[in-house]
Design brief:
This protein has two helices and no strands. The protein has 75 residues and is an all-alpha fold. The chain crosses the membrane at residues 21-44, 50-68.
């Protein structure tokens, strides 16, 4: 390992790679799971309440926050 492999001490630390990816994956799992649940319940003739939309809202929020965190690294 050479001394040129290390970044200079005056540079700020680099953020970790793939920032926000966990939030994006969690959001897609919540959104996909909610849609599967809604379709299965509709096919079976069951009813679901508006509380079913809470995981959908939470999933969309996770996707948005994950994309914003990922985008802020690019600047």
């Amino acid at each position: 390992m050479s001394w040129t492999d290390r970044p200079p001490s005056w540079l700020p630390p680099l953020p970790p790679p793939k920032r926000g990816r966990a939030l994006i994956v969690l959001g897609w799992v919540l959104v996909g799971g909610t849609f599967v649940f809604i379709f299965v319940m509709s096919y079976l003739g069951g009813t679901h309440t508006l509380y079913t939309l809470l995981p959908l809202l939470l999933g969309l929020l996770c996707i948005i926050v994950g994309l914003l965190r990922r985008d802020s690294r690019q600047r």
